[in-house]
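Quarterly update from the structural biology core.
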Amino acid sequence: MSPISSERIARLRLTSQQIADPAFRTPDQVVSHLGAVQAQDYAAMKWAIGLRLPQATETAIEHAIASRRIVRTWPMRGTLHVVAAEDVHWMLALCAPRVISRAASRYRQLELDVATLRRSMTLLRRALKGGKQYTRAEIAVILERSGIATQGQRLIHIIQYAALNGVVCHGPRRGKEFTFTLLNEWVPATKPRARNDAIAELSRRYFMSHGPATSRDFTWWSGLTAADARAGMESAASELGTEVLAGRTYWFHPGAYPAKTKDACWLLPAFDEYIVAYADRSDVSARLGGTPLQTRGGMLDPVLVIDGQVVATWKRASRREHVQLEITPLTRLTVPEKKSVAAAAKIYGAFLRQPVRY
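Predicted structure, tokenized:
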């Protein structure tokens, strides 16, 4: 293997994350490989999966959710993700207690004591039993009728608390509205994993799919304590390779190879794992000369990546007969690079099944 560098790290991540040379053919295979895909932005989540699948469409991602192969819930960091159905129960059991603990002060601010939260879960179990699927507004009515106030942020924190405890998860969409349903009816419980085994598996999954990455990156992504993260990495160490750059140890799949990405371009959505899954994003922003990737109050913009490096941001607007992209370069692009943007836009259009212009 050639000496490690920021540029090589970026190219290795392109293949380990399945952005370049994708090996999988279904949405659940991609999600399982990555461990979890951030999903608070629903359209962005669909494209995050789709760009890692040859000839994928939005319809295929929607079908994977409706057919219960991938599940949208809050497994890590208090943030919505999609995870493979076979992973949802053990990931919640491992990661949710820490999320709940960290949210304790917010619950107090909202005057949501343990008794109220537990009573809310009991009401949701009764109301959703038998495969029922209710929208957020319908759940608010159920809770209000039983004397539980849902104004402001109380409702979403009640629902999230129930999800973290394995009571509910997102169900299929009803038109443009999201629904919630009972997790154990949507995806039957699987055999529990021993905690040490779960930590080791999450560690292995992360570094195999996101490497090269550091222990700090993994701790950030998983939401685990630093001690738990180190223990998981030690358990998975025999399956991983390591390299050191600038005093930082990077862990990765030992069979990983750097993508051959000369001028190759990808349109990555907001919160894509290629950006959001690392505490330190400098290895993919070497061309920006220190310009931070986080903008708009901490929101991670959609970015345009060429040869593994972020070079622009972008946003889309729907027109009557096409999708319009507005691209904002963050550094100067060469003529071949500009041509590669057209190829990336064409792939995105095929996914949307609409013409894309910019």
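Residues 42 and 90 are 23 Å apart (CA to CA).
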